[in-house]
Design brief:
By secondary structure, the chain is mostly helical. Helix content is 71%, strand content 0%. Helix 2 packs antiparallel against helix 3 and helix 3 crosses helix 5.
Length: 225
Amino acid sequence: MEQVKTKSLKSIEEKMEGLDSGSLRYHILESAKNFKSSWIELGRSLYSAWKDKAYKEWGYVNFDIYVSREIGIRKATAMKLLKSYYFLEKEEPQYLKADYAESASAAQIPGYEVVDILRQAKNKKVLDEDDYNNLKKEIFEKGRDSQELKKNLGVIIRQRQELEPQEAQEKRKLATLRRLVGQLRMLKQEVQLLKMLPMPLVKELGEMIKKIESQMPASLAGREG
């Protein structure tokens, strides 16, 4: 990204001239200038521009052309940025808080490439929750870079694939049921909070959660509390 910054910095600064400093467009350009230290801000802003198609208001036909011409990055890089940001917002919002960035215990704020690897690991069926949590610790506590993380992830995947087929299938089943129960619990809370359904239906949802939990080992279901 250093090469892109040096080539396009002057162009970005010229584009910033005359723009409202409080506008989304200005904020994205400003974040692009400080890309290495503020990729999260850039990812957050790009996500807003992509989701709301704000780039069309700025005279660009599509997102690809916008990121290429306006801030000097490829679409693939831009998509990694906004996906990595959205992943943190959805799955690990605690790491977006200001107190995390200021904490002396945080080894470093990880780059978007590392967060993107964690995002992909989250969706790998061969990995369980413990595997994911261990990877997360390597990133946010030990400050592993993308190469180290890829290497460690590859080792974990090979170990999981060497399990007996029946054991591997059972692990996947338990991990899936755990995710399902967690998602249903969150949905039930949201439905109750917003009063979207009659209470009898909410109770039925609660009963369904209990029935699913009955298919899980007691120790596993207990952790869902």
